[in-house]
Design goal:
By secondary structure, the chain is mainly alpha-helical. It has one domain. The protein has a two-stranded antiparallel sheet with strand order 1-2. It is flat.
Length: 148
């Protein structure tokens, strides 16, 4: 089941150079969605649950569409995979540098992945205070509470 359509990508395009070949856009959308399904295997089940909730919610579906549109748009903005380009004519120069670790590739960033995985899923960082509360070095130390 496709979550995103070519019109979602084309209608979200900012600036000139929007893609016009909807078959090509659909092809890259399918690739992006396969990558998402591989990285977030429970996403479709969560989308199905979201659709069955009363009142119906579409927040996760819209977030998923946003991520797919971002992935495909980034790819179409730099199809040659260039890191930077520079154009100079006489005293005028124009330079463009593309962001990301792999420009021109279909990527799912860490931020996009965290938006799709949702809150409370996956591993979380934590700390364990190894200083006993009876130690004067502990932030919880209270000398009046402990007999000496």
């Amino acid at each position: 089941m496709a979550w995103t359509s070519a019109s979602d990508v084309i209608n979200s395009w900012i600036g000139g150079g929007a893609p016009t070949d909807t078959n090509l856009v659909d092809s890259w959308i399918a690739r992006a969605e396969r990558l998402i399904r591989r990285e977030v295997p429970d996403l479709q089940a969560r989308l199905d649950v979201e659709a069955d909730v009363e009142p119906e919610s579409t927040e996760l579906l819209e977030t998923t569409k946003d991520v797919v549109v971002e992935m495909v748009t980034d790819l179409f903005r730099n199809p040659e995979g260039r890191r930077s380009t520079q154009l100079s004519t006489g005293p005028f120069q124009e330079s463009v540098t593309f962001g990301g670790d792999n420009p021109g590739k279909l990527l799912l960033t860490g931020d996009q992945l965290s938006r799709l995985r949702g809150v409370g899923l996956g591993q979380r960082a934590f700390t364990i205070d190894m200083i006993p509360s009876t130690s004067p070095y502990s932030p919880f130390y209270n000398p009046e509470a402990w007999p000496c």
